[in-house]
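#data-curation
PF: Archiving a pair of folding outputs for the training set. Convention for this channel: one message per protein, sequence first, structure tokens after, nothing in between. First:
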Amino acid sequence: MILAKSRGKLRSLKNYLGLALSVRATISDSKSDFHKEFPYVIPPIYRKLADELLVELHLLSHQKNFKNDAIFATGLKELFSKFTNGYKPKEHITKLFNAICNCNGFNPTEINSTSEQLVNKAKSFTKDDLTAFLSTQINEKKDRCYYSRINAIGIYKLIKEVPSFKEYKEEDLNKEISEIAESLGYQYSRVEKDISMYKSNIEKMRQALEIIALNLTTK
């Protein structure tokens, strides 16, 4: 009886380890595909972004409740654009984005197109237009409302492009973001935290680039 239980535990342990190794191998495969498509050295200041984004997209691609919608596409494009500011050589920026997307099963052309369309529409959105757009998003999502920080950045980018919000104070803008987040089924506290961290990291990146530029000019 004791031997049977021990064998059962050993079998469970083997199954668990096999699953863990499988997940790890899948991430490893994504990274391998990435380096095949982008066989260039990534400058140190941008390396963390590339690695984190690659892993994040990999994990999202395995979430059954995740939906790659217009807000997500806008957030992904905005995040990548902001944190590759100053990247050299410039001709590698598009290649880097394409490789990060492709190795995880995301179509970079569709991401770019969807993001561009939403941003262009948002620039002429009224509040009623925004409400109608969000209603469409809610209907399309149904039960698929898995949250990621990229969604929060998409919401922030969307709000910043709507003309009627241009003159809003930070407090009023946060209220609008809160309403949008809750309408999409997201916890505002998480959205607020992720947007705050995003803005803080942009500022840190800007300062780091300024220091690098200053060091280069003094040499």
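PF: Second:
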Amino acid sequence: MSTAAFTSPTGAAPAVSDPAATKPEPFPACGNIPDAEREELRRRGILVTCLEELYGWGRANSIWPLQFGLACCAIEMIAAATARFDIARFGAEIFRPSPRQADLMIVSGTVTKKMAPQVVRLWNQMPEPKYCIAMGACAISGGPFKQGYNVLKGIDRFIPVDIYIPGCPPRPEALLNGLVQLQEKIRAERVTGEHAARHLRPGVIAEIPVPECGETDLVPPFAPGAFRPPTPPALAAQPAASPATSSRSQSPSAAAAPSAPAAAKA
């Protein structure tokens, strides 16, 4: 999956956004007025907008994150709410202890396979529209514990992630940068059409099956329909071999020995 990186002006680690969040065309209800003219009219006290744009503006500036943390990245998330970084500047300071009152899940830390069912259950209890930020290397891919038998290799195996924030751990400025990228994505969403919000798109899973802890792994190991294992570039570029030319279907002895008609002709 191709991703687009955004570098924070504060020098923090870049946040990576979902490629589906490409900026669409301007709102048709606003007419063909350029953004510069709309800004000039706004300075004169005239606001030219439409209900859909106003709806996206209100949602983008009133994000309520879910109040929970998993590991050391949660300390950086807590620091982002302090007076030095002041996440309230972006309207996201109301951390809700109940998933039914939150619309943003910040997966901040290592997700073990024992904790994954609880995280998925919290995600299912959050109302739509909802969004997810994978904060730190552990939440993105397992981080330094990727080869561990008890660590989930990325929360996106079960939950659709909107913003990836790399780092171990990322600083609070990086989280604020990812929050700004999420706000831009929310403002760009539409009620209908190609750029509709995720829960309004056809074929999207409404509730993710909660995995169970099996003998050696989670059951299922990833959410069907929500995660597609990546194909290595070498295998993707390799042409598919036909049965007639494939050497794997033949045993070494059969490939070395000539066939009976060929031996008779010789």
